[in-house]
Design brief:
- This protein has 246 residues and is of the alpha+beta class.
- Helices cover 49% and strands 20% of the residues.
- The protein has ten helices and nine strands.
- Strands 3-9-8-7-4-5-6 form a seven-stranded mixed beta sheet, with helices on both faces.
- α2 packs across α3.
- It is elongated and about 80 Å long.
Length: 246
Amino acid sequence: MFEELLRELGLSPNESRVYESLLNLGESSVQKLSNKSKVHRRNVYDSLSKLIEKGLASEVFVKGEKHFKAVPPTRLLSLVKEKEEKIAHLLPEMQKLYEATEEQEEAYLFRGIEGFKNYLQMILDTKEPVYFIGAKAFWLDERLKHFLPRFQRERKRLGIKFVHIFDSEVKTQKPEILKLVGKPYRFLPKEYSSQTTVDVFGDYVVTFVGVKPGQLDAEPLQFVMKSRRLADGYRKFFQCLWDSLD
């Protein structure tokens, strides 16, 4: 049940299964853990050693026999905080290295849901208004339900403005997106709907293909172009389109 989350927090597959088994069994022997987690006994010992190092498990002795128990799951939050603190400490130096080698104009691709999350993080990092052309409400995709609330809170905290031109279908098929993103927004005429969306913010023009109302493609693909001159041109295109719509 929790294995995917535990792996996202940095635990190996075996560590995740053993820790979840500890939560289910309570105080337990290695053999019981092996049976419950479906992890070989030899690998259970290795996983327990690593869990103890991370502060997620502890040893206890029951009638002279070594048993193990889980440390309360709140320890997971401490692990996340420790990682954040390490990143925050090193981030300024990493940012300097990145900016020293960053090209002024470039183009690249993002693939998959993790790539889409990178695109959302770019919006937060840029801290400039975002203009959406042919928007599809694909932020409502089920795979983003845990990531999007944090993104929205941070976006509002930073005061990043959204201006949407939605495809016509969104009005009837996914009206809940309108409350989520807020005004201002307008709609394209139905005959101009497509499977393409263009987002413009800061130095970036990001194009999506194969998207439908409320749903990303199975393997989302984003074409990212970085050029202030290009982005400024697209903002003019957007304004012309915006002014022509009711």
